[in-house]
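Dear support,

Our group has been running a series of protein-ligand predictions, and this particular one with 5-O-phosphono-beta-D-ribofuranosylamine is the one our PI (initials K.S.) wants archived with full inputs and outputs. We had some confusion internally about which version of the output was final, so please treat the block below as the authoritative record. The input we submitted was:
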Amino acid sequence: MTGRHRVAILISGRGSNMASLIEAARSADFPAEIALVLSNRPDAAGLGRATEAGIEALVIDHKHFSNRESFDEAVDEALRARAIDFVCLAGFMRVLTSSFVERWAGRMLNIHPSLLPLFRGTHTHQRALQAGVLVHGCTVHFVVPELDAGPIIAQAAVPVVPGDTEASLAARILVQEHRLYPEALRMLCKGEARLEGERVWFQQAWSPDGALRSPG
Ligand code: GRF
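Confirmed final output from the archive:
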């Protein structure tokens, strides 16, 4: 299909967010096509799902590179060779170099399973339970060199309920991740949201009314 933005999804594992982006992009009115799925791990389960969907699934194994710079250079070349416009990190477990991130500034998103800036890094659900928060969620943000620190483009919140475990919380949030990421990518590709300096500019205002209450 021509005229749509070309998106690459970078994964390291399961690829459920990747699958939700692929599914969204099947719709003719979605402003992007998924042109490439790239994994740094040859055993990433998401690779098979991408291939089944008819999308090129490329492995660039980080173990074959002696340093981060050369790995990132290979990834960058692969993206450029395919005329990729936007990059979505979706469970991609490698830290990217500042020079790579800066090259893709404003064109690279990540999804993180917490309401940033809370709980950057790993084990977010466990840490949310430990902290006793009653609202938790997920965030899509622009990628900047500092980990999980980029300007926020979209967030979804869910209640934390008594008896929740890491698994129950992860499952509740994953449902929202799968809705939020395609929505954020759509906004970016349509120019409805863009990075301006250290902030996200939004074309449209939205309602300030309503709240997720927990206990509700
Ligand atoms: C998701 O929870 C995402 O927020 C985080 O890593 C997980 C990846 O899951 N960055 P999947 O590979 O998309 O299923």
